[in-house]
Amino acid sequence: MATQKLYAGAKLRELRTRLGHTQKDFAARLGVSLPYLNQMENNNRPVSTTVVLALASEFGLDVTELSAGDGERLVSDMREALADPLFEGVMPPLADLRLAASNAQGLARAFLTLHQSYRQTQERLASLDEALGREDARASPSPWEEVRDFFHYCDNYIDAVDRAAEHFGRAQAKGVSIRTTAIAALADAGVTVELAEMDALRLYDPDAQSLQISAHASSETQTFQMLVQVALCRNDALLDATLDLARFHTPAARGIAKLGLANYFAGAALMPYRAFQDRAREVRHDLEMLATHFGASIEQVAHRLSTMQRPGAKGIPFFFVRVDQAGTITKRHSATRLQFARFGGACPLWNVHSAFETPGRFLRQLAETPDGVRYISLARDISKSEGRFGAPLRRFAIALGCEIRHAAQLVYADGLDLSRTSAFEPIGISCRICERKTCHQRAVPPLERKLVVNPDRRDILPYRVD
């Protein structure tokens, strides 16, 4: 498998500007010529090993920061947007998309925003009979998608909130559970907590300063919801300051994001960064052992693992996704090169869909994407009961995975033959941008390929992809 070259011109310019260096001074400290630095900053040359080592020794840079950020996500998102039939026949070369993601990120994001607005307008036109006569029937950003993209481009790691939650989680007295600590913190804020027979998971009355938690919910969910209220009651200023920086377009988006940040705080308090990272390494990222140790659910643990991207103390870069039975992605994040489709479902060849057939069991999969990158993926069904007879059962499946080079750190890789090429199943992101020619599960043709239709022959697909 070919080694991927590292282009990080935007990161180099950002670092040089932050340090206040001219190109000449910066080149001298890196031990390269001025023209060479100029070419790297404009992504005409990849960052060499010598420069990477110089960045670490001269400036103390966490070199993993060079490959982190928005580049791969923007490329993936632009490819998906350009797979829209609207752009048929105008797909730019992948190299051009990478240049745009590296050198013109503002333009790339503006393009994605424009395409998203177009999609929303088309959806509104398709249901015009429902929109007629409504004053709010104009095209506007979807609050849910706006918040989803906020976390997506923050690498699913919010430093200030994470550190505040870690401080709260560590502040608990020795031998005192985080649940008891949360109740005490709420009491200090004048909030009483009680378990109630109700369907809602959490109900807060600001006038009475009383918090009700569903008695039907699992213990892990109850504790999590208490911590959410701690975030909303005791860290409101921090959440608002973070939201001010995000500059959401609508109050609805800001409200959804605030709840998302409160949920983030709850997960980070339940599983404090350093303690969670140390324990994860000790048990080789065994989700069940981590869930037992921290009093969390399997989904909470998997989601927390996907947020371990603190600069200077990064964990394994995982991807995390949750899907419903229709294959719709309801949660997604990737710190890896694998990026999920922003619209629609996940690749049907992925083992996350099979998890519904084997409830309560972990499914392992070795997979390879069209770009040749190999992954180990773990999937499990996570049905959610409302805790009483007759209540609806919500069924989801989650998948957690990482690139195969980290497999030795995962207990789930034990016994798998990582050296056998045929052990890796071919998966993709979205049919429209997947270049595989012989996929038996293809739903729609790839946008970038020519189709050949032979009326005298019928294979699995009614056409051949050239």
Describe the protein's architecture and organization:
The chain is α+β, with helices and mostly antiparallel strands and 466 residues long. The chain is built from 18 helices and 11 strands. It has helices at 9-19, 23-30, 34-41, 49-59, 64-67, 71-82, 94-103, 105-126, 128-131, 143-153, 159-170, 178-188, 219-234, 236-246, 251-270, 273-282, 287-294, 298-305, and strands spanning 192-196, 202-205, 210-214, 319-324, 329-334, 363-368, 374-381, 396-403, 425-426, 451-452, 464-465. A 6-stranded mixed β-sheet has the order 5-4-8-7-6-9. Strands 1-3-2 form a 3-stranded mixed β-sheet, covered by helices on one side. Strands 10-11 form a two-stranded antiparallel sheet. A hairpin with a 4-residue loop joins strand 4 (319-324) and strand 5 (329-334). Helix 6 crosses helix 7 (94-103), helix 13 packs across helix 15 and helix 17 (287-294) crosses helix 18 (298-305). The longest helix has 22 residues, at 105-126. It is globular, with a radius of gyration of 24 Å. The model is unreliable at 129-139 (pLDDT under 50).
Major sheet:
6 strands, mixed
Helical percent range? 40-55%
Number of helices: 18
Order of helices and strands: HHHHHHHHHHHHEEEHHHHHHEEEEEEEE
- The whole-number mean of residue pLDDT values reads 85
Strand order of the largest sheet: 5-4-8-7-6-9
Q: For the terminal residues, how far apart are their CA atoms?
A: 24 Å
Number of strands: 11
Structural class label = alpha+beta
Low-confidence segments, ≥5 residues, pLDDT <50?
Answer: 129-139
- From the alpha carbons, calculate the radius of gyration and give it in angstroms: 24 Å
